[in-house]
Amino acid sequence: MKVENLKDLDLNRLVRKSYGDDEELEARTAAIIKGVQANGDEEIYRLTEKYDHVNLRLQGLRVSPQEIKDAYQEVSEDFLGALRKAKKNILSFHEKQKRTSWLEPDTDGSMLGQLLLPLKRVGIYVPGGTASYPSSVLMNALPAVVAGVQKIVMVSPPRKDGTLLPEVLVAADEAGVTEVYKVGGAQGIAALAYGTETIQPVDKITGPGNIYVTLAKKKVFGTVDIDMLAGPSEILILADESALPQELAADLLSQAEHDRLASAILVSPSRELLEQTIAAVERQLEDLPRAEIARASWDTYGAAVLVPDLQAGMDLANKIAPEHFELVVKDPYSWLGQVHNVGAVFLGRYSSEPVGDYFAGPNHVLPTGGSARFYSPLNVDMFMKKVSVIGYSEAALKRDAQEIALLARSEGLEAHARAVEIRFKD
């Protein structure tokens, strides 16, 4: 890794799509979805055996209450305590997002307003297998709980023994998930969208997964709503000479270890800081358990970018629109007004990215691949729908009828005009 000058930077390497554009993968995903639509549970069993090497026909797809009860015996009290503190913080943050319905009466007797209603049934996807993501369970389920969703359905791929990780099951129970199923991949998304004999369809699907999960969400959108098309994890750090290289290196690697395709970028006007951080990354990679993954990410999609000043660095950050943006500068709050295109911003050296991933309260399901230009983190509003309320009085319609009819006829829609005028014909 070498320091790159801003004018020589290849932005195409750093600004990537959130999902693949691979026709072969899309065709495979579509075939999986069609198979689930046609054959329901049997196709789920077949694909789970093929991809996860687990035969679930005898024990079934749904996690039993006993399995959840047993999971509590397999986790430590320390884990449970930390999970519950994180849950409290996440709930507290998301409760501040909740809005209420409103109705506004007029003096002419009419009433306009908006109903805010929770979705009835949502599905959350949680990656599984050998990995454990209890934090993803909390981040996906708790905003739905705050919104008032009645049924929260979780799918996650099973381990080789046909079980889900105990930490994930405990998190699901603590977060208020009402149904849990042992199914992952594109088939899990298809089951949530279209239903099977065992799994009833949902209204919306949230949660990140691999490329097949992402392409499946893309495919079923319209049948159900989705949160976003999530891509590999990203972090961009804008730092000045006050930052410590070892801390910056640790934060960069915290995202690089996620995925070989993850992106970790450091931007600074200080060449010395950039070079020292590169050296610190190399040292920390030596004993990192996921060093092979982090190394591939750092070598392929990592960058250390020298900019003329912090303003140029801020402009670059807004252009790249990273998922996670750390401002490790002397006075980070003074720059907050210039933050526009990021998923989440972390202010100062003590706001390390994992603080947001696990504990602080804001949601860690964030837009990737440049979609922070127009998309938001997962939030309570995403689990609600809005219904417009129109209650016109006779006086109001009489006052507005002529203009309504005129606008309808300007569009060539005579029946629209007559539907208003007929009420006053006699």
From TrEMBL:
Catalysis performed (reactions): L-histidinol + 2 NAD(+) + H2O = L-histidine + 2 NADH + 3 H(+)
PROSITE patterns per UniProt: HISOL_DEHYDROGENASE
UniProt keyword annotations, A-Z: Amino-acid biosynthesis, Histidine biosynthesis, Metal-binding, NAD, Oxidoreductase, Zinc
BP GO annotations: L-histidine biosynthetic process
Recorded GO MF terms: histidinol dehydrogenase activity; NAD binding; zinc ion binding
Residues binding NAD(+): 125, 187, 210
Cofactor list: Zn(2+)
EC number per UniProt: 1.1.1.23
GO CC, one annotated term: cytosol
Cofactor note: Binds 1 zinc ion per subunit.
Pathway: Amino-acid biosynthesis; L-histidine biosynthesis; L-histidine from 5-phospho-alpha-D-ribose 1-diphosphate: step 9/9
Catalytic center residues: 323 (proton acceptor), 324 (proton acceptor)
Superkingdom of this protein's organism: Bacteria
Binding-site positions, Zn(2+): 255, 258, 357, 416
A UniProt-annotated Pfam family: Histidinol_dh
Family from the record: Belongs to the histidinol dehydrogenase family.
UniProt-listed PANTHER family: HISTIDINE BIOSYNTHESIS TRIFUNCTIONAL PROTEIN, HISTIDINOL DEHYDROGENASE HDH
Stated role: Catalyzes the sequential NAD-dependent oxidations of L-histidinol to L-histidinaldehyde and then to L-histidine.
Name this protein carries in UniProt: Histidinol dehydrogenase
Species this protein is from: Desulfosporosinus orientis (strain ATCC 19365 / DSM 765 / NCIMB 8382 / VKM B-1628 / Singapore I) (Desulfotomaculum orientis)
Encoding gene, per UniProt annotation: hisD
